[in-house]
Amino acid sequence: MNVSQADPATLAQQQNASKPEFPLDMWYVAALSKELTDKPIGRTLLNQSVVLFRTPDGQVAALENRCCHRDLPLSYGTVEESGIRCGYHGLLFDGEGKCLEVPGQDKVPRKAFVSAYSVKEQDSLVWIWFGSEENSKPSCEPPRYEVHTDERYVFDGGVFYYEAPYQLIHDNLLDLSHLGYVHLRTIGGNAKVHMGAEMKVEGEGDSVRVVRHMRNSTPPPTYTMAYPFEDKVDRWQEIEFHPSHLRIWTGAVNANTESLDSPDRGGFHMRGFHAITPETAESSHYFWTVASNPATNKDEINKIVTEQSEMTFEEDKVVIEAQYQNMKRFADRPMVDIHVDVGPNRARRIIKRMCAGDSHAAQ
Amino acid sequence: MNVSQADPATLAQQQNASKPEFPLDMWYVAALSKELTDKPIGRTLLNQSVVLFRTPDGQVAALENRCCHRDLPLSYGTVEESGIRCGYHGLLFDGEGKCLEVPGQDKVPRKAFVSAYSVKEQDSLVWIWFGSEENSKPSCEPPRYEVHTDERYVFDGGVFYYEAPYQLIHDNLLDLSHLGYVHLRTIGGNAKVHMGAEMKVEGEGDSVRVVRHMRNSTPPPTYTMAYPFEDKVDRWQEIEFHPSHLRIWTGAVNANTESLDSPDRGGFHMRGFHAITPETAESSHYFWTVASNPATNKDEINKIVTEQSEMTFEEDKVVIEAQYQNMKRFADRPMVDIHVDVGPNRARRIIKRMCAGDSHAAQ
Amino acid sequence: MNVSQADPATLAQQQNASKPEFPLDMWYVAALSKELTDKPIGRTLLNQSVVLFRTPDGQVAALENRCCHRDLPLSYGTVEESGIRCGYHGLLFDGEGKCLEVPGQDKVPRKAFVSAYSVKEQDSLVWIWFGSEENSKPSCEPPRYEVHTDERYVFDGGVFYYEAPYQLIHDNLLDLSHLGYVHLRTIGGNAKVHMGAEMKVEGEGDSVRVVRHMRNSTPPPTYTMAYPFEDKVDRWQEIEFHPSHLRIWTGAVNANTESLDSPDRGGFHMRGFHAITPETAESSHYFWTVASNPATNKDEINKIVTEQSEMTFEEDKVVIEAQYQNMKRFADRPMVDIHVDVGPNRARRIIKRMCAGDSHAAQ
Fold this sequence. Notes:
The structure is a homotrimer.
Chain A: H1 8-16, E1 27-32, E2 41-45, E3 48-54, E4 60-64, E5 78-80, E6 83-85, E7 92-93, E8 99-101, E9 116-122, E10 125-129, E11 154-162, H2 166-174, H3 179-182, H4 191-195, E12 198-204, E13 207-217, H5 221-226, E14 233-242, E15 245-254, E16 268-280, E17 283-292, H6 298-329, H7 342-355
Antiparallel strand pairs in A: 1-10, 2-3, 3-4, 4-9, 5-6, 6-7, 7-8, 9-10, 11-17, 12-13, 13-14, 14-15, 15-16, 16-17
């Protein structure tokens, strides 16, 4: 890496001193379970440079990504039975950050240790807790995501890196009216249909829910491929915002056959999990999965759905990064709100309140 | 784009507050006509981030490159009959910056508009006016460039991007003595011939004229290819500086047959148009064309002349960008003037005077 | 080069004003002799932008890398019999920085000259002296390196560029215990053997000597290929630190046959020369050679030894650059010393003393 380029973690460490730019007292997604193999992962999360690893017995750990001897990132080391070994002089640390061994000397210096973070793996996700000074230990459990253990669904996912603040990605997901303009070539379809959909925005506690129904419409190609629809369909889009992630449940039933409001509705479902974890105030990790319930050819349709989702997110990334660059360019200029901003603005107020410390741990 | 890299328009916007680094009350070239097809162009000019586009009826427009809703550059949008549509949520703006439509709502908010710039297309060039606060509207017409409509000539051109201030490119063009050193491999020829040429520097108003005659010399290969010279030739180089562009008229006649001073002289002509428009104080757009009057094989020779010009400018770009990097490295060191600097220094005084506001609109 | 990226020499020039970050009153390696062919080399050394060149008669010269006319780096120019000619307008400078010619005018302006640096080529190395204000001229000769002229040895080498401060490379070379962790895939071998070796650290004046003996061990593949060892060997590693370079003499004799302490010991030898010359406070040039005394197939084994050394240094570069990035990221965190740091820490104290001005010229 070129030293003359700004380093996200360095810049962030400096800014971090002042005030929290993100809610701290909550669980964030640090990785998808499938990412943690036998190699450590170095990743900056909420301005903290972290090494994530899984020991051969399957346990996941997160330490500060720095050997206390001469600062080499521990992510350049190797994972062993009892922990992670530094790739420079071989110091060995366990999952709590305790130094177990300094090669070539009998005694481990008293000051030889690194910080550890609370992590918990569940539902194929690895969650991490940073916490404010008063809440360095988790005050609750990470949220469950039952879709990943529901046998009716197949799913897959990935990780995107965005050069943009996390809240711009919240905005994007909470307002699917952009489908007709950004995703012309993929899932977009007819812009007017999306813009004209019935929309309802609700909030409860630290969550926001945006529901859109598109009745009596033509099912998109992916839908007809995955499910034997008879003709027209009634479609729904349900977006549920939580400070650590969004859940987007879209789907369709044969037109005029079922209530779209029932959680037990049939038809074809696509359920997206979207966890945006800030790297810094200006960059984000985007962990996502999409689960679906194809009537047949489960594996094949799962693969197609995953590929299409990835292409779609790639389109969003281009737009959101360009948007952020331009926001900095025109930093002093006011933005004009329109009707689709109701959901996004409500989510921003929740984050703002949490950063100000007016909230209990939320996910 | 990587957020940790400096962004020209952002940096520029900040500096812009203080004092003009460029003359503002004049027309600049914003694009070659041929660049404006059915896609919008995003371009920073004089520190302003601009989107240029041509509607299907042929009209050219220039707006600030930012949707007033959520800041996406309008250059990511699409051009329609009535204007440009944002690529995020579909707001539509006409060529004056007025918002015509906000998809999904009936009323367009009163504050929904973007700034527009004065543009005029003529002679295959697109001109733009920024203007000082007192002169936000053009106080004159853009200059004509009749060569582009003269049937005796064929021409083509292109655009270069320089990581260097525009005045370093003026210097380079006003002093063709560098041909023998920078352009050894292309149009250079014998360094001593160039250095030994008769030179005359004249000035009038906001223009500078450098004339060099090289009598009784061997015509370069391009010349003999394009024109049936008998033997030795008398060559001329006429460089005409205007604050917005330079015109370089070079050519040759059979030795001792005609006066080199007559504008009606015969022989072979190459006429260069060179408009250097600052992107920022540290970077420039270089719009150029070269027109020639081959006796035969017009298209073929036009192609060769254009390719050779492009190669030559590529050589200049390498030298000028290296020069500028080194100027910053040795910022506190004085430069020593030599005889070839008379023309360039005169042009610099004109620009300085114009920045100080002592000039009427010039081109 | 992109103007918006930080330029090492520019940043350095600014910092340079305050206090020396490196000992100034000593010779540094500026190049390997073999680097200086008929093309000039531009290189920043100790924050100074320098052009190095060799005139056709073989003389080596070093000037500030800037034409005094319009600042083009002289390294963009061409070398002639009497000096170097600028690649923009053709000014010609001799090896003392005197301007001999300004093309197109008879008189050379009095102020037309550039600074020259003291250089000396010996033992296949080009040395340069910068000097403090009080010692702008060398107060001693550069150190000899007789290995390069010793007929028992064959050698070759190269230059690496590190995005890391020079002292991190000193640390690395003075502590070969990292071999077992960083160089697993090349010369590493068994980590425990390296860590368990007998070690002795000595100091004298401005030098540090670290000696490690590994008795009765299995010779590595390179050793058995180069020399007819009978079975087990006694190996030595001798590291000699001088402020301008390190000498690393490693080798082996048949086990229990000779004293490892005698400079006349037989067996197979590999002698490394490692000169780390700061480019800036944050980056370094690393000039190296490795000499060996193969019993047979000298050329072939010289080639293999050189290639293996290069691969090894590549591994060090990755680790040291990552270490430096992380040091900046965790700038406020203390490092914990372990037993292997004795040699490196002693060398750091010498450099610190020299920067404070408490030392006579050292190499």
